[in-house]
Records
---
Amino acid sequence: MRAVAVFPGKCEVGLIGHETPEITAANQVKIRSLEVGVCGTDREICTFVYGSPPDGFDYLVLGHESLGQVVEVGSGVSRFKPGDLVVPSVRRPCPHAYCLACREDKQDFCYTGDFTERGIKMTHGFMTEFYVDEQKYLNGVPSELRDVAVLVEPLTVAEKGLAQVWRVQKRLPWVDPKTPAGHLGAGKNAVVLGAGPVGILGAMVLIVNGFKTYVYSRSKAPNPKSELVESVGAKYISCEVENPDQLAERVGNIDLVYEAVGTAKISYAVLRVLGLNGIYIFTGIPAPKPPMDLEADTIMRNLVLKNQVVVGTVNADREAFEGAIHDLGIFLKRWPTALRSLITGRYKIDQYRDLLLGKATGIKNVIVLT
Ligand SMILES: [Zn+2]
Ligand SMILES: [Zn+2]
């Protein structure tokens, strides 16, 4: 079968023939790939800065944002049947008995670094026609989400981030006890940094949870992304028009920052204006760059005097996937046009080269495999 693979040893990316996987254990499920999202991680792997093949291979099949359909199940599989739609998680646990996190199915908090990730680290990904996985790593998707469910994986970034926010902020009276469940952000101000798919999906989650939400990004409005975020009820602000102090003045107390921009300079500039009892979630992974100037004393002073918290978050657990599938259903009812417009292009697998190596365009581009 066909697969898009990266050969790190040869610094090549290509469409290859890859052996079709078969079920070899009772708890496994065989899945037909329907759609695979392409993101910055895939594009970075294609510059050979990271991404490693499984043992015994000189290539890694790419792709970690998948929507698939079950075609066959092992004898011990109870949760899925052929025809079901599924989205797989990405990270698989390390083998060490002493890794408390992996032994409790919380490999997103792996202590050893010896986890693998499908399509990223030592396990083949989903940019191919079929794949096999254990049922515990699969999440069922209702059929009405068929045309948007490829967005589940990028949405899990915000889902896990927000789950951390609720836990960390439990240490103080952050949410009014009278606030209805599911609306815990009511009366709070959130700023999203960046207007890529992770940022826009993050803004949607924050709005659904009741936050007054601002998206702070580079391009001057109006532009397609500013129009999209304003159509769902966020306020778009360009950092070329308003500096972080002006942003803070406009917003009032910044209770939450959700960073989805991936560069340190603007992120730390906004950390400086985080509000009282504020929480800042970092999700971006910047490429290494030379040291830069930072208002470190002000930031440190604020962290202490304003009871602030900075949290980094990577990967997602089962709850984050289930939350993403649930919330995608809410988005589809509330903003069907805006949600669908996040997927700016659907392409055949043989167009992989432009998507992975060409200039980044649109919001979320998807490879369709059927
Ligand atoms: Zn991705
Ligand atoms: Zn581990």
---
Amino acid sequence: MDKNTRICIIGGGPAGLSAGMYLEKKGYFNYSILERQDRVGGKCWSPHYNGRRYEMGAIMGVPSYYAVHDVEEFCGITHDGPKLNRNYKDASGKVIEPFARTLGNIIKNPWLLKMKGQLKKFGELLETKYKGYDLNGHRGVAEGRYDGYAVTPGRERVEGVNPNLKDLAMPFKDFCEMNGVPLVQKIWIGPFTSFGYGYFDEIPAAYVLKYLDYQTCMNFVKVNLWTWKDGTQYIWEQLNDHLKHPARLNSTITKVERHDGKVFVTVNGQVEEYDKVIVTAPLYIPNKRDDGQKGMVEYFDAREDEKTLFSKIDYERYDVQAFLTKPENHPEISYYVFDNMVPKALGHLMVYYRRWRDEVDQVITTYALRKHKNMPEIPYDKCRKMVQDDLEIMGNPAEKVINEWSVYYFPHVFTEDYAAGWYDKVEAMQGKYDTYYAGEVMSFGDMDETAEYSRELVERFF
Ligand SMILES: Cc1cc2nc3c(=O)[nH]c(=O)nc-3n(C[C@H](O)[C@H](O)[C@H](O)COP(=O)(O)OP(=O)(O)OC[C@H]3O[C@@H](n4cnc5c(N)ncnc54)[C@H](O)[C@@H]3O)c2cc1C
């Protein structure tokens, strides 16, 4: 492609900003990033409280976050945040050690004895039967192929045929049961469901395992995690500062029309002309949202294939609240509540996070899911009350909510559409209308998968 191609990037979150960085690395400088909000970072949102930053969105990374590492290198920053740690409580607020192999625990939970064996078996299955499972993106999976770049610092190009990969379309619960390793769900659930990515009986195994490949999951188990002192938003603020063309904030796009090999974007009332557009903002939102976010099909001259495919996307209703507590009620550490990570506990507090362990005059953030595909959605206010009541049960009552949001979180498709080749159909549309689709839905809803997808998109098409 001509290096002077005029490229419009919609969205100034990790996907959009890293698209800018990787374009620059390849010699494309004629791009604009349009961001609707008055800040960059998207779901990496780290507001200030009492001299420090807390996390309303993304919190952590793992050592295999190679794309995030590219950004750190580009900007000369590093992961310098507080060390993470956590304990566990049951739904009644009692502190528990669910994985301790003590006699009492084993008598209560005999499955503990079988878990280690299943974990080992699972690791072997992923390496052999499911070879190629962990590549970024979903190209070829539904057809029993893998096609992408290895999850290594060098990201070597790999492709191959593996019909077993079709199993990844199944809900993770069924996938584990079919492979005789149901107990591994007890490990994977912590960094999956409580992080808002849905329940194992509804979410295709592909999403679970591309994010939590075996190594990444073990990094969570061993708490071998990265954080940033000034929050994850700082990574993207830094990147924005280092780009030749920082994102244009407060950009309201009302129309995008594609014809005659050009893309006409109406932004803040003015029409701008481009050659290509990369959409990292939501492609489709099935309901009306209070924050005014819309899917691209609503403001683009969307074609029938775009409308049909994108209408299959759903997202998680994941609520985050930042609470203040009295010093005596401040938890001494973050807590996970496994009992509340199952569909029957929908709307309850699954995890609460204490970021700064050296100071009690800081906020605590809470996390709850309020939608399962087969259950009625719990209204926002009701869920907020349930979470507040749960904090009381946990022995850490909180008086005041100082920040909250209900996030457009983890867009994905379900098993039937995944198995029917949704991803290969969308991948086949890349570039068709001078439009490229990136951002969370194309890979997975975490910082690194989205940034890595942007890297690959630039590598493949520019
Ligand atoms: C509570 C929470 C916890 C998380 N924890 C982690 C974690 O620990 N580790 C991790 O790696 N990830 C985590 N994530 C996920 C991570 O933040 C996201 O996956 C990542 O930010 C996605 O990047 P993105 O650029 O695809 O989308 P987003 O971050 O959503 O960015 C999209 C951007 O597009 C903008 N936009 C939307 N519509 C338009 C429009 N019409 N015009 C212009 N701009 C538009 C938005 O304002 C936004 O800035 C978490 C997220 C949340 C909410």
